[in-house]
Amino acid sequence: MSQSSHQKPHALLFAYPLQGHVIPFVNLAIKLASNGFIITFINTQSIHQQISKAGRLNINDVEGHDLFSGAQKLGLDIRDVTIYDGFSVDFDRSLYHDVYFETIMNDFGFHVDELVGKLVLSNPSPNILIADTFYVWSSTISKKYNLVNVSFWTEPALVFSVYYHLDLLRQNGHYDCIGKYLIST
User: Fold this and answer.
1) What's the gap between Cα 61 and its chain centre?
2) CATH classification of 3-154, choosing from 1.10.1040.50, 3.40.50.300, 3.40.50.2000, 2.40.50.140?
3) Which comes out higher in pLDDT, residue 131 or 88?
4) How far apart are CA 115 and CA 120, in angstroms?
5) Which backbone phi and psi does 151 adopt, to 5 degrees?
6) What pLDDT, in 10s, does the model give residues 7-55?
7) What SS3 state is found at 10?
8) What span is annotated as the signal peptide, if there is one (predicted)?
9) Which residue from 85, 87, 45 is spatially nearest to 66, judged by alpha carbons?
10) How far is CA 138 from CA 84, 134, 148, in A?
11) Average pLDDT over the chain, rounded to whole?
12) Taking the domains of the chain in order of start, what are their residue ranges?
């Protein structure tokens, strides 16, 4: 067998930058690392700063903790990396959610592509990209860097089913609202 066949799987994880998406990704990262994966968890700079502040406030640690300090102390290979999301850390993402969402959906992929390009050159090189299902760029970037592409859905299965069958709900009169972010089929 070649030496590369003994290499541990190395996954890059990209959660949508909201708490309800980050927490399931954190759980996935710990589960995969517990099963021998190398994990590079990519967070936006703003989410990383929020987590660091919360860690200092909750545990009175001058240095702050990242999401994985406890897992790393247990020997799990989880690396925490930050990425620019197109806005300053002080930008109010909640107040201007529509602008933020649009930028994340349309422009964030360029920043991700740049980061993944750098990480692919690192040792060990990643071979898997696990991205939130909301991201549309993951398959393109995965193909570009020859990574296995995994789409990870963070919400309950019922929500996925509703999104998937939205056209049927409309056809049967259960949903007649046409909104700005309506999923088209």
Assistant:
1) 26
2) 3.40.50.2000
3) 131
4) 9
5) -95, 125
6) 899 999 999 988 788 889 999 999 999 999 999 999 888 887 877 776 5
7) strand
8) none
9) 45
10) 17, 10, 10
11) 83
12) 3-154, 157-185
Which token pair is 59?
């545990």
pLDDT value of position 64: 47
The per-residue b/e assignment along 35-65, b for 16 or more CB within 10 angstroms, e otherwise, is: eebbbbbbbbebbbebbbeebeeeeeeeebb
Q: How many angstroms separate the first and last alpha carbons of the chain?
A: 46
**Contact indicator for 68, 28 with CB cutoff of 8 Å:** no
Measure the CA–CA gap between 44 and 111, rounded to whole angstroms: 10
pTM across the whole model: 0.79
Q: Which two tokens stand for residue 72?
A: 């790393």
> Count of CB atoms within 10 A of residue 153's CB?
14
Question: Would you tell me how many other CB atoms lie within 10 Å of the CB of residue 167?
Answer: 12
Query: 155-160, long-range: CB within 8 Å, 24+ apart, which pairs?
Result: 155/20
Question: Is the backbone peptide bond immediately before 124 cis, with ω within 30 degrees of 0?
Answer: yes
pLDDT at 89: 85
